[in-house]
Specification:
Dyp_peroxidase; globular; 409 residues; 9 strands; 2 domains; Dimeric_a/b-barrel; eight-stranded antiparallel beta barrel; alpha+beta
């Protein structure tokens, strides 16, 4: 064969691609140009990159996360748009199980750095999705975007009891990498950061494992580090009317470039694990309003039994967050557990990296979180230490499009 095909490309092709590679270079070249898309029914498949909406939002939640927030260091608009075009092209390749660079991971002149860092060679696509968002700080006077800042991208209010650390909050641009293999997710972020050298710097990042929400009815409900099923009543991709009304931004919302996009809120919530573990089962269940074993709402037997708010305590977490208490406001949650080692006293630095998508945080996340911050007894066991909000534009339509093109048009 006259051209190098990396093991990662071969895995991205699937069995048909491997057979074609053995049959001849012409067939292999054709398959590499248009790799087949597997709808990630297994943990090794690939989700489509191009579409009306960005992948990684209603996509069935994968098992691993690498989330990063960047600060833009260039002050030249054309350099920023050029970077977004480079990132988009790399993301289109990476999500299909290919290398970050067009020339291949070990291609190009030996005197130059390779186009891909190489740690994902031999690994399949693993359901990788890459989702980009723009923070409010990007809409300052550097790039002429101030007038295009959506009203829904308003600064979050200060919530009672929060102890935010500025160094791990905010950011100009975020990228959410989700995959079933942590090395695939880390590889993707590492290569985007490498491509962005000299134009962006990493402000903060977060690794996550063990999804804490289901975004499809085909998925079982996972558990958070407090041991409770999390996200039983989460909005699901199959809820067509709810998704249209509560998740996707529309042109009539006031920012036409965001039509088909969504607003992302992140919160790093540290849990005082050791204190929680010494709390009685009855108190734990009263705090959540659910049975710990089955996940059934108070007074019921099964997880998906209808919630009876009157059967639980007035300040139960489920009751305070329920849509009926907030003008039918829903969130699409797709958060992750995290463990960042331990502190100097031997206590786990662990908790929930909360991720929620919605049409307008002012009507959805803000009222729900304000109610929880003021009244939720769970606050005795948690503290919010970081926060971010980002406008995630619509999807990339084809190879001639790029992340955020509508914003910069």
């Amino acid at each position: 064969m006259s051209e190098h095909i990396s093991r990662r490309k071969i895995f991205g092709l699937g069995a048909a691609g491997v057979a074609a590679a053995g049959a001849g270079a012409i067939a292999a070249r054709s398959l590499l140009a248009e790799p087949p898309v597997v709808h990630a029914s297994s943990t090794s498949g690939a989700f489509p990159f191009y579409g009306e909406h960005q992948a990684g939002i209603v996509t069935p939640a994968q098992d691993r996360l690498h989330f990063v927030a960047f600060d833009v260091t260039t002050t030249r608009r054309e350099e920023l748009t050029g970077l977004l075009q480079e990132w988009t092209a790399a993301a289109a390749r990476l999500t299909q199980g290919r290398d970050a660079g067009a020339s291949g991971a070990v291609g190009g002149p030996p005197e130059a750095a390779p186009d891909d860092t190489g740690e994902a060679l031999g690994l399949p696509a693993s359901g990788l999705t890459l989702t980009v968002g723009f923070g409010a700080s990007l809409f300052d006077d550097r790039f002429g975007l101030a007038a295009r800042r959506p009203a829904a991208l308003a600064d979050l209010p200060r919530f009672p009891g929060e102890r935010l650390i500025p160094e791990i909050s905010g950011g100009d641009i975020c990228v959410q990498a989700c995959a079933h293999d942590p090395q695939v997710a880390v590889h993707a972020i590492r290569n985007l950061a490498r491509i962005g050298f000299g134009k962006v710097t990493v402000r903060w990042s977060q690794l996550g494992f063990g999804r804490t929400s289901s975004t499809s009815r085909a998925q079982t409900t996972p558990r958070n580090l407090m041991g409770f099923k999390d996200g039983t009543n989460n909005m699901k991709l199959e809820d067509d009317d709810l998704v249209r009304d509560q998740l996707w931004a529309a042109a009539e919302d006031g920012a036409d470039w965001m039509a088909g996009g969504s607003y992302l809120v992140t919160r790093k919530i540290r849990m005082t694990i050791e204190t929680w573990d010494r709390t009685s089962l009855r108190e734990q269940e009263d705090i959540f309003g659910r049975d710990k074993n089955e996940g059934a709402p108070a007074g019921k037997k099964n997880e998906f039994d209808p919630v009876d708010l009157a059967a639980m305590k007035p300040d139960a977490h489920v009751r305070l967050a329920h849509p009926t208490a907030h003008a039918n406001a829903h969130l699409l949650r797709r958060g992750y557990n995290y463990v960042d080692g331990s502190d100097g006293l031997g206590r786990l630095d662990a908790g929930l990296f909360f991720i929620a998508y919605q049409r307008d945080p002012r009507r959805q996340f803000v009222p729900v979180q304000m109610s929880l911050a003021k009244n939720d007894p769970l606050n005795e066991y948690i503290k919010h230490v970081s926060s971010g909000m980002f406008a995630c534009p619509p999807g990339v339509r084809d190879a001639g499009d790029y992340w955020g093109r509508q914003l910069f048009a």
